[in-house]
Amino acid sequence: MSLRRQSLLFCVMLALLPWLVGNASSGWEEGPSGERQFELRALSPKFWTLVSREAKLMTVATGFGFTEGPVWDPSGFVYVSDETLNKIFRVYPDGRKETLISLGDPDGNTVDSQQRLLDCASVLRAIIAVSPDGQYKVLADRFDGKRFNSPNDVVIGPDGAVYFTDPTLDLVKGEKQEIRFQGVYRLDGRGGVHLLTKDLSQPNGLAFSPDGRRLYVDDSEQRNIRVYDFSASAMLTNGRIFGNELGGHNEGVPDGMRVDREGNLFVVGPLGIWVWDAEGHHLGTILLPEQPANLAWGDPGYGTLYITATTSVYRLKTRVRGFVPYLKH
């Protein structure tokens, strides 16, 4: 490279330095004690149309074992699974916790069209419905007569059916894997279980686009997000890679995901929540003090993300409103 071109390149890099420092999302900054810090790190100006530069991360509650499966209840609390303490809690904005049910390794949750709380019960290897008084009913625990592996996350589809992932991530130690693949399933209103795809290594979080034409599923082992075309007959076609979420050792993997009303994706990934537009562009990352596992839209208007991250539950206001499948939009 000529000296003139080197000088020109240096000048260009110098001019871009302030933007790179303020917006680059590669790498990680630690606090003075080596602890992770909350940070909003943009890759695109569009990121700031979704999250304000002045947004503050608030701690709702802490002191859990390992949090998962947040779901907002309009009564003013969020359901939270604790995979270590083996409970599902009601967690209130003032940090108060109430035990709803004691259950072996509860995982992802959602609410169905009947306003029932649905849980991926890993130890039961089942999808269950939990009543307000803490009783549960098994909705499905088998496919073709064989027990599920360990249902992980669950959403309601545009047709009102239940869609869930079944990796081996939480298969009880010592128990046999009866289904020889890790699938994505549809549970219909009559209790029928239908396999949609088995082409993921460890399917985890999943979400539908607001128009119901796409299903996103991430793969914790392959560290990517897949997208499928979803038909009115509840078939998946044209599966392809939507995006990759690669990171370092112990930095986290793709996990829970949610979609806003404009079709942007908020997906758990290394070091925080990765924000994507509907075309597969990584817009930026919400870096968190603890590694998250899942998230949900909440508060009146659904303009707040409730985030389950290791021992805590956090909340972050956004500039967008969430798409919540079981609500009428």
Percent of residues in beta strands: 35-45%
SSE pattern, N- to C-terminal: HEHEEEEEEEEEEEEEEEEEEEEEEEEEE
Work out the count of structural domains. Answer: 1
Main sheet: strands, sense, barrel: 5 strands, antiparallel
| Overall 3D form | globular
Q: Strand arrangement, largest sheet?
A: 1-24-23-22-21
Using only CA atoms, what is the Rg?
20 Å
> What do we call the CATH homologous superfamily?
TolB, C-terminal domain
Highest-level CATH class: Mainly Beta
Number of strands: 27
How large is the count of helical segments?
Answer: 2
Low-pLDDT regions: 1-33
Specify the structural class.
mainly beta
CATH-defined topology? Neuraminidase
| Helical content (DSSP H or I, runs of 4+) | under 10%
- Please, what is the average pLDDT? 91
CATH architectural name: 6 Propeller
Q: Termini, distance in Å?
A: 57 Å
